Amino acid sequence: MREPSTKFLLSEFQIDHIAECLTAQGYCLLHDFLSPLLTHNILHELQGFSEQDFKPAAIGRELGQQLNDKVRSNTLHWLEGNSEVQRHYLAVMEQLRIGINRRLFMGLFDFECHYSHYSRGDFYKRHVDAFKGSSNRVLSTVFYLNTDWCKDDEGELLLYRDKQISPVLIVAPKFNDCVMFLSDVFPHEVLVTQRDRYSIAGWFRVNGSHGIKVDPST
Hints:
Shape: globular
Number of helices: 3
Helix content: 10-25%
């Protein structure tokens, strides 16, 4: 198995900027996140999947998972490093994990992610990725793979702070943009999309192992 290429890795300046944004406001919106070549390679892999490669997205975690299309109607495909392009992406996120830990001492332990597909009419109502003290998800990431996105396509991500009604950030899912935010601080939602919408949703996690329980678990 070939090792992921270092040519796709982030610059130290990028990681510094991410750390500074997370410290100052708890979230960071990045444009031109990855190299154009890697981003197009990821999109090419994604376009090669069939509908059968995606499964309905559930809400909740582990034994509490359930399907509820009144809350969430997208589909997903987990990235497990089974292709070269997936290994490249995971290598970037591993570099970021190490870099954030060195700068912010967050204790990030590992990273999990999946391709996410919203068909026309799909949405995800307001929710949080982690409840305070009850989850090992610490830092959420969403990397967008939609070319030529325009305002009429809708499907924006709205990021809120705690129980506030107005969003602190509105993110159009534009190609090669990435947003990161603290998982237990920012409720968020995906508005109804008017065209196919693709992304990689991911979470950096801390290690919650204790006694005979090993965590994190997928």
